[in-house]
Amino acid sequence: MAVLDHISLGVRDLAASGAFYDAALAPLGSARVVEKGIGYAYGPGPGREGMMFWIVQPDAEITPSRGSHVGFTAPDPNAVDAFHAAAMAAGARDNGAPGLRPEYSETYYGAFALDPDGHKIEAMCRSAV
Q1: Considering the entire predicted model, what is its pTM?
Q2: Which end of the chain has fewer CB within 10 Å, C or N?
């Protein structure tokens, strides 16, 4: 049984963050699958089960939280590289170039970026390079 069904991050500008995540998550095979007044959800695509990632615009008196970290699964190191390049092109700040992370495990390959609201996002896979 999966522990998580969905996760959401608060963002300041839903349209701008939506454009950012559309670009950054495309190399990982994830697309915007739901648009509601509260926000946008990203998932593995129509007809495929999987965890949902939401971005939502909080009430005016609530600000997006800092210190958040969301790791997205990538199928292979090439997808991690493409995620990082797409995130940078979409306006992310670099928080760790693609590469092996032996401090996590011998086969952990990941890349880190900070989204427009400063949330740390990551794409990673566990496969030998």
Answers
A1: 0.82
A2: N
